[in-house]
Amino acid sequence: MIDGADPATVRAALDSGDPLPGTRGFAGRLDTEDGSALLVRDVLGRYPCFSEADDPTAWSVDPTDLSDPDPVPAGHVRTPDGDEQVWPLPDPPATDDDAVAITAVRAAVEASTAAVETDGLAVAFSGGVDSAVLAARLDAPLYVAGFPDSHDVEAARSAAAAMDRDCTVVELTHDDLERAVPELAHAIGRTNAMDVQIALPLYLVAERVAADGFDRLAVGQGADELFGGYAKVAKAPDDPRVDADTVRGARREVVTTLPDQLERDVLALRAAGVEPVAPLLSDRVIEAALPLPGHLLVADPAPGEDRGDAERKVALRRAAASWLPDEVSARDKKAVQYGSLVARELDRLARQAGFKRRMDDHVTKYVRSLVD
């Protein structure tokens, strides 16, 4: 069984070594012509796949099915003899024609979103350019989750109004967090504060989407990594969080973090009852994004401007101008755990439960207390 692609496409990608064979990712068990089988996971790990740590023949796409799950690395095949990388991430040279580069991004996003079936689909909408592109291109209802006074709720409402769209607000409460944390931690196999804070808004909005009768949720995952959405990328080489000495190099560093992030997000959404759809992580979009020059990821700062304040995701914003009002295509957004206020309120709950900030990693300790 292969998630995300048909076996013939995966076999052809193995034969050719093509890391981007025209899919939105894939993972699972592939039967070979000689009668053997191997586990595969695409170059960016857009679908999860696991085997027992001591038995590569026992596998699942859900780690809770296994006693000691070991993820298949992105771009690898796993056999009883071990793991082998078969698809390295491409590293094309920078495009030297800005107009050609932006046209390629626009065409890739158009093709990727046009290929999405909208029956049973909803859109996770935060009001930022990533989710706004999906909202503009997909005929599906919009949902946002956050505490009532959160940035994401206000941004989603104002962006939806500018786009003449309705948006369902899933207002979160402390009870929601306390109930969901152990469920989520079990599903994703993680209890550290950062992963739980990031996944909680996704999990809770997906629960509501599923309750409303939808079985698929379109998400903007991958856009920040591919198009230069992080401050640490903008500040390269002066930000200690990246090793690279250029914006393009820093962008590549954060792209390589996607397999671990996507494993968490896919498992969270599936546990809530929906299947994720990530059009901005299609092979078409990846192929268009990787050759972007640094100034189409992060704009050159104005004289006296801090590099961290320069415009980010330049090429995506220019491409999105075809579909979005200026006020939406130019809008910045906060990371989901902060924009939804989930991080703030989980910290508040931890302190109320006696896990004070002077304690090392107090929110993680609180999460683990709920799981226990």
TrEMBL record:
Gene Ontology MF term list: asparagine synthase (glutamine-hydrolyzing) activity; ATP binding
InterPro entries in alphabetical order: Asn_synthase, Asn_Synthetase, Rossmann-like_a/b/a_fold
Gene3D superfamilies per the UniProt record, alphabetical: HUPs
Residue ranges occupied by any Asparagine synthetase domain in the UniProt entry: 116-237, 248-356
Keyword Protein biosynthesis: no
Keywords: ATP-binding, Nucleotide-binding
Region (Disordered): 54-85
Keyword Nucleotide-binding: yes
Protein name as annotated: Asparagine synthase (Glutamine-hydrolysing)
Taxonomic classification: Archaea, Methanobacteriati, Methanobacteriota, Stenosarchaea group, Halobacteria
